[in-house]
Amino acid sequence: MKKKKFGFFTSLLTASVLLAACGGEGAGSAGETTSKDTGSSQSSETTATENTSTKDSVSWMTMLHTPAPPSGDVESKLEEHTGMDIEFQWVPDASKEERINAALASGTLADIVSLTQISNTTVRQALASGMFWDVEPYLDQFENLATISDETIEVSRIGGKLYGVPFQKQVARYGTLIRKDWLENLGLEVPKTVEELGEVARAFSEDDPDGNGVDDTVGIVDRAESYAVGFRYLSGIFGAGNFFDVNDKGEIIPSFMQPEFKEAMEWYREVYSNGWMNSDFAVMAKNDQKDYLVNGKGGIVFSGLFDANNYMMGAVGTPQEETMDWVLVNDLTHEDVERRVLSDTNGGMGGWLAIPKTNVETEEDLLVVLQFINDLMDMEPYTLMTHGIEGVHYEIAEGDIYKRLDDTVWQQEVQPYAGSRPSELVASFKVESELSNEATEKIEENTEFAVINPAQPLESETYTTQWSSLVEGIEDAYYQYMMGEIEMDGFDAAVDTFLQNGGQTVIDEFTANYKEVN
Length: 518
Fold this sequence. Notes:
alpha/beta, D-Maltodextrin-Binding Protein, domain 2, 2 domains, 4-stranded mixed sheet, 39% helix, 14% strand, globular, disordered N terminus
């Protein structure tokens, strides 16, 4: 499947920068590193049979996707496995951009910094500045890090350098989640096209799908990140590219300049203006979106396919618990556009575990930190960060099913670690939830239809230094158009401003680099 997964991408960028050699023996425990001579000139200066570093602790600035930091014994178990004292510096996901930008500007970082904002200008500038170690020459010394695929390495480089260990993820995890019980209540079939989805959104908003006799439901529930998340997924079904695309002239252009993108906007605004989605989507936080769905106020969401089970768990103890059920749809199409899904992980890369030189000053200490990341990709810590501690958070039932013992305890003590796993590809677990098992299967199925961002490995100085500010006007215009404050000519005007202020330079630089490597 690996070759098939990136078939489009590798054919698109076959002449990109040379890939680093991967392979070699596993490393020893923290503080001791061994490697096999692979003949690579990169590793000639970094291979060693003994590391004299005395570093025995690691600090880690990472994202928190739950209301509170974790409690319990998972952290101590991770320390036991890795042989390192761990200091987690949890950054709430809702304020990650502000917090990470401030930390980068002030240099108040940790030994490891989770950088998940791929296109953020401050992040890309920091990566390109030499603030972080280029880890690529060292990866082949470590058993698990050496297995990171060439495709993931390729899309993770900035200016030809790998300024952090890539977070490894499935290529395309998104789909359309729909209340199955509501479909059944209204006698509706599972939609297969965008047009059919629109009818379901209407019915969920107007036809009392929960049967309570009150006009208190909507179809689609979106949130403040609509432009970059929910709507972006939808635009891909219409045929728009993944942030960027290659046009007929061989130019790398932003997807918001494509007619397919604007067609998706027109469809989505009609849904909004008809009242078939939540009116406050532009200001709704992610947790509020979940609460909205868990409380039975909406029945359709564009999200990770795995989220359906999260909604089911969230509904425990609420009136929705007895009735809620979800259907996972990953094959929606629009008119004559072939089935496709935009990669939500930049081709299987969810950001970087970056190691700042200000905190980790020597090569010896760098090897210790890399050993720590490597060890987190072993089966035991992966299981800890996914399911927790056997007998406390889960038990293994008949059929090798991982059975959660207490959802609330798991959410408090384990779930915060799940988003920080260096790799989500270590293993697949069969769990009690058939929705979760189905999501795993459909995410893997998405791989065949995944569309990758062709600009991800390309170089553009203007993109690196100005993109976040350049695209602000486009994002604002998207929300203004959606809410009827401007028409499409207003959105086109925002595109013209984007081009005049530096957007055309981004296109020119990406296009030149694309033609150079092809």
